[in-house]
Structure formats: C-alpha cells, structure tokens
Fold these 2 entries.
Entry 1:
Amino acid sequence: MSMPFYVSPEQVMADKAEFARKGIARGKSNLALEFGGGILLIAENSTGLNKIGEIYDRIAFAGVGKFSEFDQLRKIGVRFADTKGYSYSRDDVRGKGLANAYSQVIGDAFTRDPKPLEVEMIIAEVGDLRLAGHENNSIYKVMYDGFISDHHGWAVIGGNEEDAEAVLRSEYAEGAPMGDAVHLGRKALERGTGGSSSLGAENLEVCVLDQSLPVRKFRRLSTDEVRGLLDG
Amino acid sequence: MLFKGNYHGASFAELLQVDYPHLMPQFASQLPASSDVSIPHGTTVLAFKFAEGVVVAGDRLATEGHRVASRDVEKVFETDSHSLMAISGAAGPCIEMARLLGVELEHYEKIEGEALELDGKANRLSNLIRQNLPAAMQGLVVVPLYAGYDLRRNVGRLWKFDITGGRYEEAEFEATGSGGLYARESLKNHCDAGMDRDAAIAAAVRALTDAADEDRATGGIDLQRGIYSIIKVCTETGIETAPESEIDTLYRALLAERSGGND
C-alpha cells in the first residue's frame, strides 16, 4: 500500500494561489470608475463575449480570468438577485450581500477544490438619491481566493493591475463627466496592457450604471456611442 | 436563500420550481374546491393597434361580488420596456402573474444577454397561464391580454389567452372582462389601424366609457374622485402613459357630445 505524499497546507495554498494568479494575469484588465452620473465599467474586449453584465437594478458585474467560470458566477448572481427581489422587494437587493455571497462561494472553492477558480470580479452598485440610506455608490472586488475588499472611486481587476491603478491614482477626479471617465478608463487600460497599444472604441466594452435611469440603471453603450465619447 | 442552486437555464419561473418551490405562486391548493370566499375581480381591459403601435387600457374598479373592492386598482402592467399585460379575472393571481412575467422577461434578458422576441414573451405568458389551470378550475381565472411592439417586424401586436394557456393573436383589437363585449363593440365602430396617437387615446376613452355604461362591474372615469382609466401607448420608442389631464379633456368632450352638445 502506498502512502500519499505529505504536502503542507501552506504549500497547497501557495500553489493554488500561484496557479489562479497566472490564469488571471493572462487576461486583459477590466475596471470600474465612479463619475458624476453613476459608475462606468470599461474593459478591453474585442470579442462578442461580454465581461460586464447587469445583475440587478443598481448592480453590475465585471469579471476577468476564465470566461466560462466568471460567466457562470455572473449567472448565479442574477439568479440570486432576481429571487431575492421577487420574494422581498427590489430595494432589498444590495451589492454588499451579493459580494459577500460571491466571496463565500469562491473562498470555499479555493480551499476545497483541487483547482481554484481563475477569476476576479467587481460588483458595482450605484446609489439611488431617492432612497434614504441608499444614496452612495459602492464598489467591491472579490479575488480568486474569496478575499473581498471595498473601493472608493475606482477598482481594477485582471491584467497588469498595478500599472492601470497608477494611472487612476494620479488622475482620478471625483464627479467628472462621463466622457472624461471613458477617456481615463481607456488610458488606464492602455497602461495596463503595457502602454504600447492604443485602444479604439471597437476594442472596448463599456457599460454604465446610470443614476438618471428610472429602475434598471444598467446600460450597455454601443460602439458608436463609445466612439462619440472618445472623439468628443 | 441559496447562492448556488440546481437550475441552470434562463427561465425565472423554472428556477423557482426547481430551487425555490415555496416561492412559486400556487393558488389552487389553498382554496377548497367549492369556495364561497369572495375575491376581488378586475373587469374591463382592452388592447388595439394604431398607426405607431398598440394601446392597452383598463378601468380601475375591482369588485367582490356586488361590492366595490377597490376603485383605483391598476390592471395594465409594463412587463418590460416594449410590452404590456392587461389583466381581468381574479385580481390576486392576475397581479402576481404580471409581476412574475416581468421578472421572467428581465431574467431571460440578463442571463442570455439578449431580450426575448415578442412571440417568445407571449409564449412564456401562455406557460404561466397553463400552470394556473388547477386554480382556474376552482374559479381563480386569469385571462390577460398581452400586447407590445415587435422591434424586429416594426409593428404592434396583441394576443388574447384562454384559461388553458391557449394563445390567439388578434389582428386589430380585443377586450376581455365583464365589460369586454361592450368595449369590443365600441372599438369595432371607432377604431382603425391607421389612426394616430391622439385618435387612439380618444378611442380608448370611448370604449372604456361604453363598457362602463353597459356593465355595472366596470368602473367609468370618476370625475368626482379624480380617478382616471389607465391608458398606455407602446411604440418603437417605448411605453408612454396617457396623462390624466388628456383623459379628462377627452372624457368631458365625450360627455358633451352625448348630451347633445349642451353641456
């Protein structure tokens, strides 16, 4: 009878983390950015497979890493939010609860499964000025090991995060118009991919959580609309 | 609330059946077969086509037998940005079904990344009505109208349903509920597919007034309390609710016309 080799828990976790980080770093960046009228989500993406999606009235999802895995997580989030909104009320569906649920599931998979999920995600929730106590924007980031953090102003996932973050750290201004936010978002994404490439509207996936929309505040911008904002 | 369930499709109603059966509205088992419990009922709703799309309208009265249950109930629901459901029948199950259909359409759009075709939406409603058949046999009938703007074919379309979920697309107009017959007669005489928005709203006011005139369970426009019918217009650009002031003006003009112009 053969005995299994002993591997220390530290080693297992470190190996899993390295594996997940490598998978995620291969992909391109995705970021969320607050602006005067809501939250902008922008990703480098020239394919038809979306990395940004609507979860609920005021909540959006942005994922990086392995598409099949984060898209599955996006759908789980939609099911969770719709069920909660149907059995309680639409205003009871909150980004914080959703981000926590994601953190649990991804954290569990990280410790339990031989292969961790190669994903990172942003859960962005835009404030509603008509609801007392729900006025503020929230941005949560959930990592491959279930680590959750909340962010003010902006958050970046995937690709070369540090370089993209450096741009946002130095140039982010509160309450900027949407056009400026799209320009800044593109600049940060360009820096994240090494700064050499120049990203046009056709290479970008841009969505907004628009505070001025009545109920469902998520809106996907068409390529023409993005081009208009970048040229303007 | 589960975070990871067993259902993996794009239908919210099926999600409830598989993972949250306790949340799926089930009216049938909750009532004895021969029930004398009185339940609020909605009365007249109608839908018809006009040049730019469809109009869907309904009165505001809900009755319990011979009594008024509510004078200002809403029977026309926006199920998404380009479709409407108007309900007649047992108010509780009807309203719940409209709410469920709204979530069903939104859920599909979010999961699949693309909205259902108008035909597909009407088909989903058929499904929900079919599931309500046991309750319908006990008297909790849901017979809605469904109408919307078909963004692929650039035309307004409308459907009526029977209690088995049977779905019938109508070419011009339809009205259901206790005053439906009178509303249909009115629409037959005053409605044509080429009319513009203003004429369409006027035709809706006229049909609802005619229905309320002949059917005691249909609530007319109540000037005394300031309760107006709900009239919604669905076109390529979305859904618009006719303002009360416009309905007020049209209704007063109609009254003047009927009293021989002396009013």
Note: Chain A has a mean pLDDT of 93.
Entry 2:
Amino acid sequence: MPQSIGANDARSALTTVEHSRQQVIDEIDMPRWYWLGLAAGWFGMGVISDFGPGWLALSVVPIFGAVHASVAHRVLSGRKRTSQLSVRAELAGTHIPALVIGFLVALIGVTIAIALLVNADGASHPATIAGAFAAVIVALDGPQLMAAVRRRAARRAGP
Amino acid sequence: MAEPQFDELIHPSTRLSIVALLAAADWVDFGFVRDRLDLSDSALSKQFATLEEAGYVATERLLVNRRRRVRVRLTDAGRRAFDGHVAALQQIVATADQTVSR
C-alpha cells in the first residue's frame, strides 16, 4: 500500500465512490411514460365502464390487465429507466415489482370503494369519477413511490 | 467484505469515478459515463482503453434502434479490484481514526 495516501486522500476517494454510486441510484425508476400510460388507462377504463357498450365495459379490465402485463415486465424492476444503463439488482433491490404491483392492487380497491361511494351518493358517472381519482393518484404517487425506493437504496448502500 | 488491496490503476480520481459508476450497474452506455463525468469522448476512450488493457472493463458495440451504442461493464477482475480498493481506503480511514482517538 503506498505511503503517500493519507487519511484525507482516502476520505476524498471514498466520497468520489459514493458520488458515483448515487448517480446510478438516481436512475432507479420507471419510465415516465409508464405512469402516464397507467393513469390514462385507468381513467379510460372508468369512462368506458360508464359510457361504453356493455360488452366493452365487461372486457376492458382484462384487456387493460393483459396490455399492462405485456408492457410492465420490461420496466417493473426499476433498473432500466432509460436505455443508457442497467442498475445492479443488489443496489436497486429485488422488491420493486412486488411493491408496484401491491400499489396497483391497493389502487384497484380504492377505485372500487370510491365508485361504490359515489354511486351511493347518486352521481351519474361513478366509474369515471373513481377512474379520474385513481389516475391522479397513479400520476402523482407512482413517481413518489420510486423516490422512496431510491432513498432506501441510498441508505442501504451507505458510506 | 473484500480483502483490502490498494489499486494504483483505479485510484486516480477520474478512473475511480468511472469504475465506481460501472460497479453500481450491470452495464452502462458510453454516453452516460461521458455525460455524468463531463468528459470528452477521447478522454473517456483513453480511460476505458487503460482499464480494458488491465482486464477491468469489457466493451460491447451494439446497434440499438439503428444507432451505434457502446456498452461498458466491469469484469469480475475489475469488480474484485474495485471492492479491494474501497476496502483499502476504508482501512486507511479507520486506522487514522483509531490513531486520533487514542
């Protein structure tokens, strides 16, 4: 080990390492289009349920689920926000898909609950109102969820 | 925990930044490293050539969406060297802290 390296140099080098690691942690995310597409789809399902023909209202949820499944598997890990890098699994954690799916399942419950409440209140388009509410939650809280994942990854990586 | 092993090749600041960036990823696009570290293409190519010569990084040239991309990744040897270097740096700091606290 070279004698020329002092503690201050070593600290500075460790700070450099930490800074680089943080730049990669900042990339843990889902693409923006994923959240916006999901919000648009959620709202669309509400509109179709209220205004669409019966056969379409019945089939819109499984269609939406199938489209989501075909698209989401590519981005759900949170490790490939862009095509510029793939974050290491041990840094991002392996829990992101379960976290996002859990968030969506909870949101399904919230959507149904709101639709039932709004319907009981006598509103004429309960699915549209509930869908709009859920879409706003997806668009705003989806990115917040991933920000929390990044903070956790930074804490786990530690100095 | 890796065996502390100071690595003269990795230690220079720019190279350490590059290797630390690569260590956190499976692979990284050349342009990502260039933009994050604010280096010119030629300066970064030189650093990669040095690291590649040492067997620490591997580059892969791809055609993605009709665009040429260069992906860089840390090899197993590079990862071992980086982990050992970080452990050595931590050891230097820990030793200094112990000396001060005595």
Note: The domain at 13-101 of chain B is CATH 1.10.10.10 (Arc Repressor Mutant, subunit A).
